[in-house]
Structure formats: structure tokens, C-alpha cells
């Protein structure tokens, strides 16, 4: 695998292979020495042109557990605020001898531009680009669903027949887009729910069902209910009249949470707006796998860094 | 050049039986003994040796698998490696005699990686090495304690170990050797 830019086009066998490799990586975390020498001598640059704490820390932890050297770059307080372009920043980093670039960028398509521009020779991992894709988030979500349902017997399995409902701001959500393609490739049925103003144009052509009624979606008893963050920083227009109305219509409040089936897992990519899209009691309940998602993120990112830096085809790795 | 069979099924069984006896003898019995097979075929051989040990001395030894992919030093040259799960017996390896089991011993780099992996998993009392075939051409100062067959080879020759569990049949074959040359 040369780069990981998107979950679109990821085949079922490839996806399962990545999840299985992440299981091996997760085993490492339970050892007395939770570190592998695999990427010793390799340098991974985290280029973060957009604020992020958990994704940056997760990639950093993953690279360090594989013994890679890590350079972290945040746009805030950097030359970007002096007007430096992505190209110049990338070339500067490349000139320092970098083997892989983990890119988070506010512009959709930035990771693909970096991978295909010829500006750098390094492998590129998309850590979120605008409203486009966030493939490692989708992989860690799929891993979390598989692990929660199948436990120790999860290796090698897909998500055939599972029902996942994604709720909220689908329009601005790269997490939703990445998940739609990955989860359906793995055999899950995905249902999207949100206010009509936050459903993207053309959603009818996606391999999903779409609705606006969260109560009906909860009554349908999904295996996983994925609440999305209300991205206030991207709400440049009035997509809904008031936060309270959003919360009443599409938030997982205490009342809705009480009606949720006992075996439905609650997911959230974080950071959570407690009281807006999710209540504190839902977020902190035993049915919430939010912290598992964070833990699993490190294993997934270890697997992805190994695959892009070794150039291996995940299917061959799984063979 | 056609493949030549150097070990047949019965030869492999005989070699593994002998190795099993040697392991028990050198360990003075089967207590505190852990067999760690290196996937894929080393893990199969470790399972077979464990069965033989149990026949000779019931309850002797426990078995696991040790993946060394992430410890290799040749990620650049052979990028496509096949990671497999590492499985340790319930008692772990601390204070035990660990016998690493692999099918072919060649450069010694796989065993070097295995020794590094073991170092991250615990502190055994001793580590031994059992291989079905030792074909020479060592690049590191590593030797096997228990060898099924020493098979002096040319570097251009290739050794194939086939086992029922992975390949449907038992055989060790050599390809690319000069005709008539004795193994």
C-alpha cells in the first residue's frame, strides 16, 4: 500500500486484512514492553494544518510504538500563518528526510494532491481532509464494532448483516463519508439520519438508506449508533435554528438513550459536545465505546503506518 | 532443474521424534519447557513436536507461536511479510526453557529477530533452537541445538519444506542443484 487517502475503493479483503493486522498490533500493547522495532530509522512527519488533539496524539503514539522517529508540525504558530503554502511546507519537511507524512488539512482533496503532486516522495496518510475523508477513523470504527461484537473471535471476520446508524451533521462529516464506504464494503447496512439541511446533495446515490427521524431509527434496533459531532466551526450558514432544536431532534438525550436497545453500542468520533449531540449519561454509559475507539485508533494507525512504509499489499500481508 | 526430494514423510517423522528425545534429554525432562514455533511451518512443527513430547512424557512442554515479522531488519528489501498472531502459553516464558522451532535455518536473521521478540516478551532461563533442516550459509553467529537434517547447499539452490497441515503433503525438496551432486 503506497498511500492511504480514502476508504473509497478499499476492497473487503484489504479492509479485513488491515483490521487483522491491527489486532496483532493491539496484542503488542498488552505486553510488558509495548514497543516494536519495526520502523526503526524511519521518520514520520505529522503535518497538521487543522486543530486536532486525539488524531495527532494517536498517530504519534502509533509511530513511536513502532520505533519510528516523529516530527510534528502544527500550523498554528508556524510559517503557515506567515503565508507558506502546503507545497512549501511539504517540501521543507521532505528535505529533512521524511518517509511518511500524516496530513490533516482543512481543504478536501489535500492529501491526494500531496500524494500525486510529485512534491515529495514519502508515503501519505490522510488524517482528515476538509469534509472529504478520514480513513483511519473509519477503520478504527469498523475495528471497534467488530471487536465489541465478536471479542477474541473477531479476527478474519467482516461486518455482514450488521446495521449501523450514523446520526447528525452528515453534510460536513468526513467521518460519515469514510464510514459509509468502508462499512458497506465490509457488508454492513448503513442508515444515515440528520436534519434535511445537513444531508448532502446526492446522498441518494450513496449505498445507504437515509432518514430524518432519529426515534424511528432507534426503534429499528441498530447494532451501532454513531453520533457525529456538531461541527460548529463549519456551520457558516444557518443549518438549524437553534442548538436546542438540534438536540431535541437529533441528540442522544437521556430519554432516547433509555429507549435504546440494551445491545446497541454508542459511538462518537470525539470530541463530544455533551448536552448537544449526546448526553453525559449516554457518553459515559457502559454501552458507550468512545474510549475503546480511542484505544483502537492507535492499533489501526500502527497497522496503516506499517503497510504504507513497507509498501505491502494488505491482502498479501493477510494471506 | 527438477525438484529433488531429500526428506520424505517418514524421514520427517523420524527426525522430529529424534529431536523430541534430544529436547527432553537436554532439558532433563519435560518440566518448564516451552516450544515456540515461528509461523508458518515452524509453528506446525512445534505442534508436532509437542504431540511427540506428550507421547514420550505425558504433560511435557507447552506450545505457542512467535511471529517475528515486526522484528525483521529487512523491511526495505522484502516488504511483503506475513504477520501472524503471537500466542504464548498461559504460564508465559519467564524462567522457562524456550525451544524455538523453525523449518529451515539459513542466514540466521529470522532467529536473530526471534531472539529480539523473545526479549520483549519475558526472560526465559534458556533459549534453544530446533530446526528441521540446516542448509548453512549463516550470516550471523547462530547455530541450532537440534537439527533434523544438515543439508549443505549452494546459495542458488532453494529448499522447500512442505507439511500436511499447510501444503497437503510432507516433503523436503531441493531445487536448482547440480544433477547428481550429493546432499
TrEMBL record, chain A:
Keywords: Pyrimidine biosynthesis, Transferase
Subunit organization: Heterododecamer (2C3:3R2) of six catalytic PyrB chains organized as two trimers (C3), and six regulatory PyrI chains organized as three dimers (R2).
Entry-linked NCBIfam families: asp_carb_tr (TIGR00670), PRK00856.1 (NF002032)
Pfam families (UniProt xref): OTCace, OTCace_N
Catalysis performed (reactions): carbamoyl phosphate + L-aspartate = N-carbamoyl-L-aspartate + phosphate + H(+)
Assigned GO CC terms: cytosol
Pathway: Pyrimidine metabolism; UMP biosynthesis via de novo pathway; (S)-dihydroorotate from bicarbonate: step 2/3
Enzyme class: transferase
Protein residues bound to L-aspartate: 82, 174, 229
InterPro entries: Asp/Orn_carbamoyltranf_P-bd, Asp/Orn_carbamoylTrfase, Asp/Orn_carbamoylTrfase_sf, Asp_carbamoyltransf, Asp_carbamoyltransf_Asp/Orn-bd
Any one GO BP annotation for this protein: amino acid metabolic process
The EC number(s) this enzyme carries: 2.1.3.2
Family: Belongs to the aspartate/ornithine carbamoyltransferase superfamily. ATCase family.
Positions bound to carbamoyl phosphate: 54-55, 104, 134, 137, 270-271
Gene3D superfamilies: Aspartate/ornithine carbamoyltransferase
Protein name (Swiss-Prot/TrEMBL): Aspartate carbamoyltransferase
GO function term, MF aspect, one: amino acid binding
Record domain Aspartate/ornithine carbamoyltransferase carbamoyl-P binding: where: 2-146
Organism in which the protein naturally occurs: Protaetiibacter larvae
Domain Aspartate/ornithine carbamoyltransferase Asp/Orn-binding: start-end pairs: 160-307
Function comment: Catalyzes the condensation of carbamoyl phosphate and aspartate to form carbamoyl aspartate and inorganic phosphate, the committed step in the de novo pyrimidine nucleotide biosynthesis pathway.
UniProtKB/TrEMBL annotation, chain B:
Pfam family, one: Pribosyltran
Signal sequence annotation: none
Annotated ranges, domain Phosphoribosyltransferase: 7-147
Keyword Transcription regulation: yes
Gene Ontology terms for molecular function: uracil phosphoribosyltransferase activity
InterPro entries: PRTase-like, PRTase_dom, PyrR, PyrR_bifunctional
SUPFAM superfamilies associated with the record: PRTase-like
EC number: 2.4.2.9
The entry's keywords: Glycosyltransferase, Transcription, Transcription regulation, Transferase
One of the GO biological process terms: regulation of DNA-templated transcription
Motif mapping: PRPP-binding: 98-110
First-tier enzyme category under EC: transferase
Catalytic activity as recorded in UniProt: UMP + diphosphate = 5-phospho-alpha-D-ribose 1-diphosphate + uracil
Domain of life from the UniProt record: Bacteria
UniProt family annotation: Belongs to the purine/pyrimidine phosphoribosyltransferase family. PyrR subfamily.
NCBIfam families, A to Z: PRK05205.1-3, PRK05205.1-5
Functional summary from the UniProt entry: Regulates the transcription of the pyrimidine nucleotide (pyr) operon in response to exogenous pyrimidines. Also displays a weak uracil phosphoribosyltransferase activity which is not physiologically significant.
HAMAP family: PyrR
Protein name: Bifunctional protein PyrR
Amino acid at each position: 500500500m503506497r498511500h492511504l487517502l480514502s476508504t473509497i475503493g478499499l476492497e473487503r479483503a484489504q479492509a479485513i486484512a488491515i483490521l487483522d493486522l491491527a489486532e496483532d498490533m493491539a496484542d503488542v500493547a498488552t505486553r510488558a514492553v509495548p514497543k516494536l522495532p519495526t520502523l526503526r530509522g524511519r521518520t514520520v512527519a505529522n503535518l497538521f494544518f487543522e486543530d486536532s488533539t486525539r488524531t495527532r496524539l494517536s498517530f504519534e503514539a502509533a509511530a513511536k510504538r513502532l520505533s519510528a522517529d516523529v516530527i510534528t508540525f502544527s500550523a498554528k504558530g508556524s510559517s503557515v500563518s506567515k503565508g507558506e503554502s502546503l507545497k512549501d511546507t511539504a517540501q521543507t519537511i521532505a528535505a529533512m528526510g521524511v518517509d511518511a507524512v500524516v496530513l490533516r488539512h482543512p481543504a478536501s482533496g489535500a492529501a491526494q494532491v500531496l500524494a500525486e503532486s510529485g512534491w515529495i516522495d514519502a508515503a501519505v496518510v490522510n488524517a482528515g481532509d476538509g469534509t472529504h475523508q478520514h480513513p483511519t477513523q473509519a477503520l478504527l470504527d469498523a475495528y471497534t464494532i467488530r471487536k465489541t461484537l465478536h471479542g477474541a473471535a473477531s479476527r478474519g471476520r467482516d461486518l455482514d448483516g450488521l446495521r449501523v446508524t450514523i446520526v447528525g451533521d452528515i453534510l460536513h462529516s468526513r467521518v460519515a463519508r469514510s464510514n459509509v464506504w468502508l462499512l458497506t464494503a465490509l457488508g454492513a447496512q448503513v442508515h444515515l439520519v440528520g436534519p434535511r439541511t445537513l444531508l448532502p446533495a446526492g446522498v441518494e446515490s450513496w449505498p445507504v438508506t437515509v432518514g430524518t427521524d432519529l426515534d424511528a431509527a432507534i426503534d429499528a434496533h441498530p447494532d451501532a449508533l454513531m453520533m457525529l459531532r456538531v461541527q460548529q466551526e463549519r456551520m457558516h450558514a444557518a443549518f438549524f435554528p437553534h442548538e436546542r432544536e438540534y438536540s431535541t431532534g437529533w441528540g442522544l438525550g437521556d430519554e432516547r438513550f433509555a429507549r435504546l436497545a440494551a445491545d446497541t453500542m454508542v459511538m462518537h468520533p470525539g470530541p463530544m459536545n455533551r448536552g448537544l449531540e449526546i448526553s453525559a449519561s449516554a457518553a459515559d454509559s457502559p454501552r458507550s465505546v468512545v474510549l475503546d475507539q480511542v484505544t483502537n485508533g492507535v492499533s489501526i494507525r500502527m497497522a496503516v503506518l506499517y503497510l504504507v512504509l513497507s509498501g505491502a499489499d494488505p491482502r498479501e500481508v493477510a494471506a | 532443474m527438477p525438484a529433488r526430494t531429500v526428506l520424505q514423510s517418514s524421514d520427517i517423522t523420524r527426525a522430529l521424534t529424534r529431536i523430541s528425545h534430544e529436547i527432553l534429554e537436554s532439558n532433563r525432562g519435560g518440566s518448564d519447557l516451552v516450544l515456540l514455533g515461528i509461523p508458518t511451518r515452524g509453528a506446525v512443527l512445534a505442534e508436532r513436536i509437542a504431540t511427540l513430547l506428550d507421547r514420550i512424557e505425558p504433560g511435557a512442554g507447552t506450545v505457542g507461536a512467535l511471529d517475528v515479522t515486526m522484528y525483521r531488519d529487512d523491511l526495505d528489501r522484502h516488504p511483503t511479510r506475513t504477520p501472524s498472531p503471537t500466542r504464548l502459553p498461559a504460564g508465559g516464558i519467564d524462567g522457562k526453557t524456550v525451544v524455538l522451532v523453525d523449518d529451515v535455518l539459513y542466514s540466521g536473521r529470522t532467529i536473530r529477530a526471534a531472539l529480539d521478540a523473545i526479549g520483549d516478551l519475558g526472560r526465559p532461563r534458556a533459549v534453544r533452537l530446533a530446526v528441521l533442516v540446516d542448509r548453512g550459509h549463516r550470516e550471523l553467529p547462530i547455530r541450532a541445538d537440534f537439527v533434523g537434517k544438515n543439508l549443505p547447499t549452494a546459495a542458488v539452490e532453494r529448499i522447500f519444506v512442505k507439511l500436511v497441515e499447510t501444503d497437503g503433503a510432507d516433503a523436503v525438496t531441493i531445487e536448482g542443484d547440480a544433477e547428481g551432486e550429493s546432499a
